[in-house]
Design brief:
Length: 309
């Protein structure tokens, strides 16, 4: 029975306008392929990476600042060269993309949970609750997201004991980026909830005595997830950029953790000495990842827009 239901769902998906829009859009297909390849590269970094940048026993300082392998002074062991600590750039990119994606996905999920919950409550309950939540959202919108993330990171560093900074840095970063991005979800979900709660199926559910929480979870939430998925896709790219920016400024992940932002910051210090590969390759990986996710989000926004069908 379950297999039949799954087949029916798959058949509906492959006959839907969204699938037709995807398979007829080369940019969307390319973006999805690039995104999946980079995610797989990050997930299987321990298998694909020629070197473990966290294993100090495998790192030799004498290999520091080696150019790419095709350079006459390069080494075949390090295809894209090495950084100032002797870590292979290719290995650090694979592990760095893993950390950037973990922070990006985790902060987006956190922002989604907070934003969707507050948006549903605000739109369904209304009144003073709606006014308070939306005024908080308006106040937060008056500050740049990067400034809020910097503020939260700074407060956390002042509250958390210094010896715990390294262990908690990624969690603080996820919280800072997530809490700075919940507003877009809340405002979108609130608007959709205001429309959905006045429809007949919600009023019928009220009449037969279904609890408000059940109505929101079973009936309203599935109908507001379309715009949320578009926001989440675009927000993922913004979260990765924010993590890279904070790490570049030295307030993100610690220098010993090779996220893409940290690698770019380290390479920037050696850029004018001729060691261009330390920052160029991680920067290119960041640009490709963010561009692919953004293009995927643009396609999803157009595909789910009924006015463009």
């Amino acid at each position: 029975m379950e297999q039949t239901i799954e087949k029916t769902r798959l058949q509906r998906f492959f006959s839907s306008d969204v699938w037709f829009s995807f398979k007829s859009n080369p940019v969307a297909i390319t973006s999805l392929v690039v995104t999946i390849l980079m995610i797989l590269g990050a997930v299987f970094a321990p298998v694909l990476s020629p070197q473990d940048p966290f294993n100090l026993a495998a790192i030799d300082i004498m290999d520091a600042s080696m150019p790419p392998a095709w350079n006459e002074y390069g080494d075949a062991r390090f295809l894209l060269g090495t950084d100032d600590q002797g870590r292979g750039i290719l290995s650090t990119i694979l592990y760095g993309a893993r950390i950037s994606l973990i922070v990006g996905f985790s902060s987006v999920i956190f922002a989604m949970i907070v934003g969707i919950a507050l948006g549903l409550i605000s739109g369904y309950v209304g009144g003073r609750t709606d006014a308070i939540i939306m005024r908080i959202a308006d106040i937060q919108l008056s500050f740049p997201a990067i400034l809020i993330a910097l503020l939260i990171d700074g407060v956390a560093r002042g509250v958390v004991p210094k010896e715990m900074h390294t262990d908690l840095s990624i969690y603080v970063l996820i919280f800072a980026i997530g809490i700075s991005g919940w507003v877009q979800y809340a405002r979108t979900v609130r608007g959709s909830t205001l429309v959905e709660k006045n429809k007949e199926y919600v009023q019928a559910a009220r009449v037969i005595g279904i609890r408000p929480l059940t109505i929101l979870r079973r009936h309203v939430l599935p109908n507001v997830m379309g715009p949320v998925m578009v926001i989440a896709t675009i927000h993922l790219a913004l979260a990765i950029i924010t993590e890279a920016t904070l790490s570049f400024l030295g307030v993100g992940v610690p220098p010993t953790t090779p996220s893409l932002g940290t690698l770019i910051r380290i390479g920037n210090e050696y850029l004018f000495s001729g060691d261009w590969w330390i920052t160029i390759f991680p920067g290119a990986a960041l640009v490709i990842l963010v561009l692919a996710v953004n293009l995927l989000g643009d396609w999803l926004r157009d595909a789910l827009n009924p006015k463009l069908r």
